[in-house]
Amino acid sequence: MSEWREQAEQVYDEARRLAPDHPLVRLLGAGVGLSPDQYWIERERVYKQLQDAVPGWDFSYGRFLLFTGRARAALATLERARQNDPLNGLIDVNIADAYANLGNIPAAVEELERTATLHKTPQVLFAIITLQTAMAANDLEAIHTHPQIPLGIDDVSRTLSREMAALAGDKPALRAALQRAWSDPANQTLIRSFTIAMWLAYAGDPVLALEVLNAIIATYVSDSAQIWTIYDADVTHRPLWWPLMREVRKLPGFKDLVRKLGLAGYWRTTGNWGDFCHPVSEDDFECK
Questions:
Q1: How would you class 25 by CB atoms within 10 Å of its CB: exposed for 0-12, middle for 13-18, buried for 19 or more?
Q2: pLDDT tens digits for range 105-120
Q3: Beta-bridge mates of residue 277
Q4: H helical segments located in the chain
Q5: Nearest to residue 62, comparing CAs of 53, 49, 52, 75?
Q6: Residue 221: what pLDDT?
Q7: Which of 199, 209, 260, 280 could form a disulfide with 164 if both were Cys (CB 3.0 to 4.6 A apart)?
Q8: What's the CA angle centered on 78, arms 73 and 83, to 5 degrees?
Q9: Can you give 91-120 as a three-state secondary structure string?
């Protein structure tokens, strides 16, 4: 992962050297080096500036809206993206995610069934969104048969998820297995932590799930220099708005988490509070 990031940064630096004013280069670099809240504010400012200049803008901005907890706005934007590219599975899997976040599980399942037949479907994201949608519906059959992330991504995480799926019908046993898994330092890598947090939320242990999410943030988004690409948000921001995380969002510590991620500052500055958090005073907010 670190090698990929290093190579990506090299490519970005070269693109910025050759064409610093190209819309895609400007969008890719928007917010780099800023504080977390300013990162999201600046990214949206550049998105709005480049609306008519960037190919696939609706998809890119729709994903941004998903990450910032604005599922309704994301769904409308992603639907426009699909009108322009109706056979793109990457768009459809994000539409499914938006439906699930809004609580419309049947629509999410329908979108996932369609996504499975399309090209450009990202297999890792497809597997994750399919699983979290099955968890949201507490559909044990779908949980047991959910598609696995491809071999070679993180095979230990793949095995962990399969083992936890086998325990899905026994929440106490599942919680005990997850606590053991989290106590093993070898499992505190990015993808394994992400997997454990998702299963903890399903198992009914929101306190430990929040602890794991905080560990991910502390390790992978510890300073603004690391928030250089929005793809990081697939792990750090996307899962926060899943139905699975409803009880996690109600914990007081969740507000501290979204402050660290820069979302609270973004919401308050722009007024774009979205679907899951809203202000209760000039200095405080609550999430659901």
A1: middle
A2: 999 999 999 999 998 8
A3: 287
A4: 2-18, 23-29, 36-49, 57-67, 71-84, 89-101, 105-115, 123-136, 140-144, 155-166, 171-183, 190-203, 206-220, 233-236, 246-249, 252-260, 263-270
A5: 75
A6: 56
A7: 199
A8: 135
A9: HHHHHHHHHHHCCCHHHHHHHHHHHCCCEC
pLDDT score recorded for residue 10: 79
CB atoms closer than 10 angstroms to residue 216: 21
One-letter amino acid identity for 71? A
**CB-CB contact of 30 with 46 (8 Å):** yes
The residue type of 150 is P
Which tokens is 169 given? 């019908």
Q: Residue 288 CB: number of other CB atoms within 10 A? A: 9
pLDDT computed for residue 71 by the predictor = 98
In which band, very low, low, confident or very high, does the pLDDT at 5 lie, cut at 50, 70 and 90?
Answer: low
Extract the tokens encoding 154. 């993180």
Token pair recorded at residue 25: 């280069």
C-alpha–C-alpha distance, residues 90 and 115, integer Å: 8
pLDDT for 226 = 43
Q: Which helix (H) or strand (E) element contains residue 68?
A: none
Residue-wise pLDDT for 200-257, tens only, equals 999 999 999 999 999 998 876 544 444 445 667 888 999 999 999 999 999 999 999 9
Q: d(Cα 180, Cα 90) in Å, to the nearest integer?
A: 35
Mean pLDDT of the chain: 91
Q: What is the pTM of this model?
A: 0.92
Contact 174, 203 (CB under 8 A): yes
